[in-house]
Specification:
222 residues, alpha+beta, two-stranded antiparallel ribbon, 31% helix, globular
């Protein structure tokens, strides 16, 4: 299994960062295989350029640049995580945030229903034991055209936070590039490389808060 945090500190974002991830995966297919090594990418399965040019999320929103570049390299890795019902042609299968929580943690889904009402176009990403990483297509993308990756945690009080500013930074972290998450879900809010993007997502989703717990006003409906 490939070691984590062995690569140089990531200095770019967006498509340029995804290019680094792709280079890393080409060199080492196990780089994004996960802690148990169950999800290596040995035979990438790209989506053709002409199909990608027309592809949007079911809501009609455009794909962010980093995701579009990744899918031009491979769609199979995300398909294994349930992003598509079909890859040829590609058909996205988003779920509400609370539906993902329900599928992953059973009874906890009801607690996240108020967030699911606002976050209806979400996709599961790997990572976590009592937590999950969830890609959320929000009302507005950030300055790079990217949507956030959230974390939900059910270990104590139900909690949700903006963990990554986009698919680009999540994938860099997954591939072992140094994105400087060292201890908490909210680390990247203090990183000058990502702070503006993180703040934009937090403002849109949680009234500027980095993370919220059930009972907070920003949770809603409880």
């Amino acid at each position: 299994m490939a070691s984590h945090r062995t690569q140089p500190r990531a200095q770019v974002q967006g498509v340029a960062l995804i290019e680094q991830v792709i280079a890393r995966v080409r060199e080492e297919p196990d780089a994004i295989a996960g802690f148990c090594g169950e999800r290596p990418l040995r035979q990438p399965r790209p989506i053709s350029a002409d199909v990608l040019e027309r592809l949007t999320f079911p809501s009609g929103k455009a794909l962010p640049p980093s995701l579009q570049r990744w899918l031009a390299f491979d769609a199979s890795w995300l398909a294994e995580l349930g992003w598509f019902s079909s890859v040829e042609p590609p058909v996205f299968t988003p779920r509400r945030l609370d539906e993902i929580v329900q599928a992953e943690f059973d009874m906890w889904g009801d607690f996240y229903e108020p967030l699911g009402g606002r976050l209806a176009e979400c996709f599961l990403l790997p990572g976590g034991s009592d937590s999950r990483r969830i890609y959320a297509v929000t009302e507005e993308a950030d300055a790079l055209g990217e949507y956030p990756v959230l974390v939900v945690d059910t270990d104590d009080l139900p909690y949700a936070a903006v963990m990554y500013p986009g698919f680009d930074v999540f994938m860099a972290d997954e591939a072992g590039l140094d994105t400087c998450i060292s201890g908490t879900y909210e680390d990247l809010h203090d990183d000058p490389r990502y702070a503006a993007r993180m703040a934009a997502h937090a403002h849109q989703l949680f009234n500027g808060k980095r993370g919220i717990e059930i009972g907070d006003e920003e949770w809603g409906g409880v």
